[in-house]
Structure formats: C-alpha cells, structure tokens
Write a structure and sequence with these properties.
mainly alpha; 2 domains
Length: about 120
Amino acid sequence: MRAKLLERGFAEGETDPALAWVCHVLGIRQDRLAESLADQHRRHGWGPEAVRAKLLAKGVDPDLADELAASTEEDSRTAVERWLEKRPALASDPGKLARFLASKGFEEDVIRWALEAYAGVED
C-alpha cells in the first residue's frame, strides 16, 4: 500500500501516518496482511528468496519480510517435491532443474539437495 501511495504523489514522510490511520480505521493489521501474503506465495510453491522479494515489492517492512520469508529446509524440500510431481521432466536435466528452482526463489543448499536427490548430481 505504501508503494501505491508514493505512486499517487504522497510524500515519503506522509505515507506511514496515512497507512497507520487507514489501518486503524479499517481494523487492518499490516503484519497479518503480510503474513497472509507470505503464506499465499508459499502455497504457490515459491521459495524463501522469492517470497521475500514479493513482500518487499508490496511495501512490507524489510525486517518483517525477512521473518515471514524464512522457512525451514524441510518446508523448502517439500515445495521442491511438489514442483517435481507437477514437472517430473525437470529431474532429467540438472541445469534446467537448477535454473527453475533458482527462478522460484529457492536457496542454494536446497537446489544442491534437489540435484543430488533427483538428478543424480554429486556435489
């Protein structure tokens, strides 16, 4: 919402008070809104780096974006497994698999795990 206010000509110093007022009047908690967005992106299979970037693009505070984007390696591995169920051909081409997972915002250690587990690439 902050980005939209800036696009519409609000000065940098005016956005936070305006957002606070709107959130108060409407009963919106920005942390819950950001948490909902992060959950939505994770459900769609995005990795932590992509979730963080998407939250920042929506104007979420960087510290909150870091906190909400953080996921366990197990969560990331589960998301990778879901992608490979949908696109099994990715496992046959290690380069394509690595590029695909990087484009979805997965961290390097999870990509390395996927290459070892599914594409037979030794580290």
